[in-house]
Write a structure and sequence with these properties.
Strand order of the largest sheet: 1-4-5
Number of strands: 5
Largest sheet: 3 strands, antiparallel
Distance between the termini: 22 Å
Length: 215
């Protein structure tokens, strides 16, 4: 690149200076691969792989983890299975002869045992269903919290888009940002400045940018 505006104020050169949005996007690749699902059947999965530098230059905090969704799916499956099993046991425990017949002792015992197991599976189904519902509520809460937290993303990206990263120095400087000079900033300093502009600067202390040497 040429021009003094994009020359790194640290090393005074411009040959390895690149716009922050370009660096961030260049470090995000969609990787497609074949793997086996829960039922053992092969499937094609596409995931986004992000480099450490791209992550450090992100304009917003990372999205919350949704791994807990697997627990919710499992709980839902257990609830359905327990409900169906309980229904089958309840039907098996009912006498099939004409009304008024006396059941043999072993038949009565088997029916009583089936009723007990049916009760247990019923409570198991209810408990598993409650777990599945709690997981759904937690996933909704995480998503809503993240959306509320990043409502000022537009303001953050306005400042973020004016950043220029020097691959030689591992620093960022701002160009044309009102009230900001061209002082070289570390990745963490740049993150704090951008995220604070968006209203979520406090998160930068918890989600710290990686060391400039990492890629």
């Amino acid at each position: 690149m040429s021009g003094t505006a994009h020359t790194c104020p640290g090393c005074g050169r411009d040959d390895r200076v690149q716009a922050v949005p370009a660096v961030h996007l260049a470090g995000r690749d969609a990787v497609t691969r074949r793997e086996r699902g829960r039922n053992g059947a092969p499937r094609t999965v596409t995931r986004t792989v992000t480099t450490g530098l791209s992550d450090a230059l992100a304009p917003v905090p990372r999205s919350p983890s949704y791994a807990i969704g697997g627990l919710g799916f499992l709980a839902g499956a257990v609830s359905a299975a327990a409900y169906l099993l309980g229904g089958a046991l309840e039907s098996a425990g009912k006498p099939t002869g004409p009304q008024g017949w006396n059941l043999l002792p072993e038949e009565a015992s088997a029916g009583s045992h089936a009723a007990e197991v049916s009760t247990i599976t019923g409570w198991t189904s209810i408990a598993a269903l409650c777990v599945a519902l709690l997981v759904l509520v937690e996933l909704w809460r995480r998503r809503a919290t993240h959306a509320r937290l990043t409502r000022g993303r537009d303001r953050a990206e306005e400042l973020w888009s004016r950043g220029w990263y020097c691959h030689r120095c591992g620093t960022v400087h701002l160009v044309g940002a009102p009230g900001e000079d061209r002082t070289p900033l570390s990745l963490q300093q740049f993150r704090e400045k951008v995220w604070t502009q968006g209203g979520y600067g406090a998160v930068a202390a918890r989600q710290r940018a990686v060391d400039p040497g990492r890629r």
